[in-house]
Input
Amino acid sequence: MTPDITVLYDTIRWEEKALLEAGKKKNINIQMLDCKTLSLDLDDKKNSYGTVLQRCVSYYRNVHSTAVLEGKGVNVINCLKTGISAGNKLYTHLLLKKNGVPTPKAIVAFSKEAALETLDEHGYPMVIKPTVGSWGRMICKLNDHDSAEGIIETREKMYPIYQIHYLEEFVKRPPRDIRAIMVGDKVVAAIYRYSGNGTWKTNMALGGRAEKCEVTKEMEDICIKAKNAVQGQIVGVDLMESDERGLLVHEVNNTTEYKNTVRVCGVDIPSLMIDYILESKK
Output
């Protein structure tokens, strides 16, 4: 029997387990499918998946599996366009700017020499980010020319994606950012993520702490615009509170984590996601 929902994953996190439990409580036929075990016949149009909730952490598994499934006529949440754009910080930035969403200033350079020249011209500190990546990995604060040269020189010897030097302004802000979880056109819950262990990064995977954040109309309006910019349906929107410019969106997550948001806010986000997916089938 074709499942109502297939949760496609490559890493089992708390979130995927919570989705399975939410489906069981609602008596939904929910299938958990490890993408690493999946092979798909590109000439077979059979759909034995129902609606697929795309939860693969790997950018490349995510977008390629979504492309094939959509080619078979499967409804995938989030769609391929969302996976491609939200999974790449450069693409996200361009779409946010195009759609009038406030976002940190950024520059992209295509060689070590060009990156160092623009850094010296614009001044330090700046932040260098891989265009593809998660959990705060390989995001570095560049404080001066010498540190920038060492970090960029190392990246020049790595996989080609790391040779695209995405440079973002170091935003003056409180020692926190905001993670807002969107299901459809509603922010269902939001948290402040505070820096931990003496670091400026706010990623919970790096030891940060979470507190409930009250959702304002301004925040929700910005989040809706950010979600729509990447054509998302269920996303996490990350915002910073700039001392000079107010709320800025610095990332949109298409396979967002929400464990700490559930814990802090007491909102049953997995159930809301299941309800949204079932409604999207009608």
Summary: The longest helix spans residues 59-71. The longest strand covers residues 186-194. Residues 5-86 form a domain with the Rossmann fold fold (CATH 3.40.50.20). The CA atoms of residues 127 and 277 lie 37 Å apart.
